[in-house]
Design goal:
Blueprint (H helix, E strand, L loop, with lengths): L5 H14 L3 H12 L2 E3 H7 L5 H14 L2 E14 L1 H9 L2 H12 L2 E2 H5 L6 H14 L2 E4 L3 E4 L6 H13 L4 E2 L5 H10 L10 E13 L3 H11 L5 E2 L4 H6 L6 E2 L18 H15 L3 E2 L5 E3 H4 L31 H13 L20 E3 L4 H9 L6 E10 L11 E10 L5 H14 L6 E8 L2 E11 L3 E11 L1 H4 L8 E7 H9 L12 H8 L22 E3 L2 E3 L4
Parallel strand pairs: 8-9, 10-13
Antiparallel strand pairs: 1-7, 2-6, 2-7, 3-5, 4-5, 11-12, 13-14, 14-18, 15-16, 16-17, 17-18, 19-20
Helix pairs in contact: 1-11, 6-8, 13-19
Length: 559
């Protein structure tokens, strides 16, 4: 018996490939027959009937069979308007709306501007602030705002023109002029709590080219295999009607790699949270617990956050509708906290000097900061000296994007004792940054929080984004500790676990922590940030931290 020649074996291999081609593969190969090198975007553009999922499947099959090969990969950046940007496209930027009124009506009382119903409170405040700081407007006698130098509005006018040009379009970053790119970089929502005007999204696009086997395969397809004559499989309906007769069906290729079957495992983010918990327990910390539905008292008032504080506005905190007032708070504790707010109580402070509302303090909200758990613990007379921590899920009103979410985790902690100092806090924070987030470079910046003095923000260097805030911390003020019955120094911190998890897991988008993509989850599972897994791979940003007043927002770790 004569052995087949190399040419015959090659022909047989090509024939098997041809017979096993899926209809989607045939359609994609037809495009490569016209242009031997294509990107995923170009494939979709030449055959609009193919969606992204179909293109991805066909490309994967053809790569496995060696018919095409990947030749490159690029990152495409696209820009579009956020909901805020679309609103400004219709009604103009708040700065220009107020400036237009000043130009047409003359001086207007600042109080009247603050009562406008067509803008949110933070928009009005920011717009008036910009007009005064830029010199475009000034406050005249009687609290009237008037135009001082309209030429200072040129930059905002140019921004408005860019918003109008964008409209509902999604534009590629490379097609934008340098001045447009600069404006978008200054006003897109990335790491700021303030509402962004532009949304910047990044997408990876792969490029492919045919391999030497494509020619013989394409030649056989051209001669005898019009794509429309091939079917994927015989259906019951075909057997009933006889429609299978005269058609050629794709053969089952048993040589293709079988689908990978993976056993169940814990979600990598759950693994990360467990790792954080056991690290704190190993250091001798006791876990604190508190309810998700919290009272304003423990969430804010006990933390010496005044009831007129802008962070308590409804646009930052979720209130529980039709919920009864919290009657579990001890009256004597409320009385001491109220006295501290009003006059400083016995702390030596002057207080905030306002009438404390004892009914409002009992209202129920969704916990907006993990520091509420620390306040509850201090009010329960903790052990002295003592070390406590909590992994607290928190809720704040926020639009979802790559770095923001309306719910997030904080790791909250307090250490109390006679020998506790601010340097103790800095040492612990450095330890947490290196052990939990695997940060290589850490620095501290001064900060302000209503409930700590001195206060500090911890920043870590992000490989792509540069320095990014991980959390807030400080030494609790006497106005916090004394009304709750604690007479020793207390250091406290609130760190954004979502951010730290993304650094440790190599994730660049906060939404990926809850991704349904199993391949992605399995890849993250190999880098869960624990010592056994080898630590982090890439870095990113997330949410969490101490709450602090900034432009009327309940801001934490740049959430």
């Amino acid at each position: 018996m004569q052995c087949p020649t190399t040419e015959e074996r090659d022909d047989a291999h090509v024939a098997r490939l041809r017979e096993g081609l899926h209809p989607l593969e045939r359609r994609v190969l037809a495009l490569f027959g016209v242009t031997p090198a294509l990107s995923e975007d170009e494939i979709g553009g030449r055959d609009p009937s193919l969606n992204a999922a179909q293109i991805s499947m066909a490309i994967g099959w053809l790569l496995a069979k060696g018919v095409i090969a990947q030749t490159g990969e690029r990152e495409d950046v696209f820009v579009s308007l956020t909901e805020t940007g679309l609103h400004y496209a219709q009604r103009r930027h708040p700065v220009l709306r107020i400036a237009d009124d000043l130009l047409h009506r003359g001086p207007i009382a600042v109080r009247e501007i603050q009562q406008r119903a067509d803008m949110e409170a933070e928009e009005k405040s920011a717009a008036v602030g910009f007009l005064k700081e830029s010199g475009a407007a000034r406050v005249a006698q009687g609290g009237l705002l008037e135009i001082a130098d309209a030429s200072q509005l040129t930059g905002v006018e140019c921004l408005q023109q860019l918003i109008q040009r964008m409209g509902n379009q999604t534009r590629a970053w490379a097609t934008l002029a340098p001045d447009e790119q600069e404006a978008i970089s200054s006003h897109h929502r990335k790491r700021s709590k303030a509402k962004g005007i532009f949304r910047v999204d990044t997408r990876r696009v792969r490029a492919f080219a045919v391999t030497p086997i494509f020619g013989p395969l394409r030649a056989q397809m051209d001669v005898s295999d019009p794509a429309e004559e091939w079917g994927g499989g015989v259906t019951p309906e075909m057997l009933k009607t006889g429609a299978w007769q005269g058609r050629t069906f794709r053969k089952y290729n048993i040589q293709l790699p079988a689908p990978r079957v993976s056993g169940g495992q814990t979600h990598p983010y759950k693994n990360f949270l467990d790792t954080v918990k056991w690290k704190f327990v190993a250091m001798g910390f006791v876990q604190m617990r508190g309810p998700l539905v919290e009272s304003e008292f423990w969430n804010m008032d006990a933390l010496y956050m005044p009831q007129f504080h802008p962070a308590r506005a409804i646009h930052d905190v979720y209130f529980v509708k039709d919920s009864p007032l919290d009657k579990t708070i001890p009256e004597d504790v409320i009385a001491r906290v109220a006295a501290t707010h009003q006059t400083g109580g016995t702390t030596g402070s002057r207080g905030w000097r306002y009438p404390f509302d004892a009914q409002r303090t009992r209202r129920r909200i969704l916990r907006s900061q993990g520091t509420a758990v620390s306040a509850r613990t201090l009010g329960a007379l903790p052990r002295v000296p003592g070390k406590y921590f909590s992994i607290a899920r928190c809720f704040r009103y926020d639009a979802v994007d790559a770095t923001h979410a309306p719910d997030f985790f904080q790791v909250e902690g307090i250490v109390l004792g006679q020998e506790i100092r601010f340097t103790t806090l800095l040492g612990l924070l450095t330890l947490f940054a290196k052990e939990i987030a695997h940060a290589q470079d850490v620095r501290f910046l001064p900060a302000y929080f209503p409930f700590t003095e001195p206060s500090v923000e911890m920043h870590a260097r992000h490989p792509q984004l540069g320095w990014m805030e991980l959390g807030g911390a400080g030494l609790f003020r006497p106005e916090v500790t004394e009304p709750l019955g604690v007479d020793v120094p207390v250091i406290a911190w609130g760190l954004g676990l979502d951010r730290m998890a993304m650094v440790a897991l190599g994730i660049s988008d906060i939404r990926a922590l809850f991704s349904p993509d199993l391949d992605f989850i399995r890849a993250c599972g190999s880098a869960d940030g624990s010592p056994a897994s080898g630590g982090r791979r890439r870095a990113s940003a997330g949410a969490g931290g101490f709450s602090k007043p900034q432009r009327g927002a309940n801001v934490g770790v740049t959430h």
